[in-house]
Structure formats: C-alpha cells, structure tokens
Amino acid sequence: MRPPHAALLLLFILAYFRGAYSNGSRSRFTSIISFGDSFADTGNLVMWADPVLPGLLLKNLPYGETFFGHPTGRATDGRLVLDFIAEALGLPFVPPYLDKGGNFSAGVNFAVAGAPAVTLQYLQGQNLIVNPPINSSLYDQLVWFQKLKPSLCKGRQGTDCFGSSLFVMGEFGANDYRSFLLSNRTVEQATAYVPQIVDSVSQGVEVLYMLCTE
Ligand SMILES: *[C@@H]1O[C@H](CO)[C@@H](O)[C@H](O)[C@H]1NC(C)=O
Ligand SMILES: *[C@@H]1O[C@H](CO)[C@@H](O)[C@H](O)[C@H]1NC(C)=O
Ligand SMILES: *[C@@H]1O[C@H](CO)[C@@H](O)[C@H](O)[C@H]1NC(C)=O
Ligand SMILES: *[C@@H]1O[C@H](CO)[C@@H](O)[C@H](O)[C@H]1NC(C)=O
C-alpha cells in the first residue's frame, strides 16, 4: 500500500502549491524553514569546514551547471524540489544555515547532504560506516534551529513567530539505510532498524512542533 499513499501525498502537495500559486494573490507564507539531506541541501555540506570533508565532488561541475551555472552545494545540476517550492511561493531560494553572512529573514535551510535521521554516535556505535562522518543528523539540525530561533523570532513567541512559515521536514532515512549498505550488512539486518529510524523522524517532528509553539 505504500506507493499509492506516497502518490496521493505528492498529488496533495502539488495541488496545494498550485492553489497557492495560481490564486493571483500573494502566498500566505513569508518564510521557509527546511530540514533534510541531499534532497534539500542548498549548500551546508560544502560549507562544512575542511579538513573534515576534503575533496567533495559537490564542489565541482557538473553540479550546478544547468541552472546556476556554477556549483552551489546542491546535489544536482539544476534546482531542488525545495527551490521550485520557494519560486512558486514568491520567496528567495532558501539559504544554508552555515552561510554565516546569510539573510535568514525569508527562510533558512538546515538540510545537510548525507544527513541521517539517527545520530552519528548511534550509527558508529552499531559499527556502521557513516559517510561523511559528521554530526548532521535530524537531531543536530534541530539543535541548530533551537540556537537560531531567538534571532529569527526577535522576542516573538510561537505562532506569532512561525505562523506564516512553511516548514519542510525531510527527506530523512535514506542515509541511515545507506550506512548499512556501505557496511556490507544485509537487507534483513537493515530492516530490523526500520522502526527506530522511523521513530526518530517522528520524534524529530514532535520536537520541532514543540519548539515552534512554546
Ligand atoms: C485565494 O484568494 C482568496 C481571495 O483573496 C483567499 O480568500 C484565499 O485564501 C486564497 N487562497 C490561497 C490558496 O491563497
Ligand atoms: C533580507 O531578505 C529580506 C526578504 O527577502 C529583504 O526584504 C531584506 O532587504 C534583506 N536584507 C538584507 C540586509 O539584504
Ligand atoms: C559528534 O558529537 C559527539 C557528541 O557531542 C562528539 O563526541 C563527537 O566528537 C562529534 N563528532 C564529530 C565528527 O564532530
Ligand atoms: C564490503 O564488501 C566488499 C566486497 O566484498 C569489500 O571490497 C569491502 O571492503 C567490504 N566493506 C566493508 C566495510 O566490509
């Protein structure tokens, strides 16, 4: 039953943004706050300090060549789904959190290419290979969000601050399973961890909800 559910969700999302876009009036969203992995990273991984990550392929062409004309840190030659959502809502491309000069008044992106749902410490504790071996998990991205929140809100609380923000959560999980494959584990061994990986995504959503409503 999974593929039909995924297809329905996608249709819903498309219909929703089409509605927001085709109305002629301005979108009700004034910012986008994004979490995830390479499906959403707009530059965080390449801004991660060397020498932890030397020789990243993302820093070179053909990444970026068909739309931006140069590598941006996106894991594609063009735009991400997140970029099309931003364009449809009339908002700027979502700037990466690690861009210290970034203007986050219309959004910020915590996504990091390669990010797992569960922590680095946990995966390495299971003797799994994590590549890149950095603290970029959903948990770590939520810590970043919590740190940035005062400067995003400037004294406003809960819905006063985030009532017109679009939160984009994920995708998460693919890199957790990739760790099992990199470590030569079987699909059966990886399957045993599915409940835990799904749980950490849903807990992450709940923590985010709590941080945005307190
Ligand atoms: C479309 O515009 C109408 C009238 O301005 C408004 O009531 C409605 O909420 C808008 N819908 C969307 C999806 O922006
Ligand atoms: C930051 O971005 C906002 C919204 O896109 C814009 O209105 C504002 O002028 C920008 N600020 C600076 C300092 O560039
Ligand atoms: C990740 O975080 C843990 C816990 O804070 C720390 O002990 C570890 O050194 C960090 N690893 C890297 C690669 O930064
Ligand atoms: C996984 O298996 C391949 C092929 O047998 C081998 O070359 C590689 O070193 C193995 N990797 C690990 C982490 O065991």
Automatic annotation (TrEMBL):
Any GO MF annotation of the entry: hydrolase activity, acting on ester bonds
Coiled coil stretches, renumbered: none
Gene3D superfamilies, per the entry: SGNH hydrolase
Superkingdom, natural source: Eukaryota
Signal sequence residues: 1-22
InterPro entries per UniProt: GDSL (IPR001087), SGNH_hydro_sf (IPR036514)
Keywords for the protein's UniProt record, in alphabetical order: Glycoprotein, Signal
Stated family: Belongs to the 'GDSL' lipolytic enzyme family.
Name of the protein described by the UniProt record: GDSL esterase/lipase
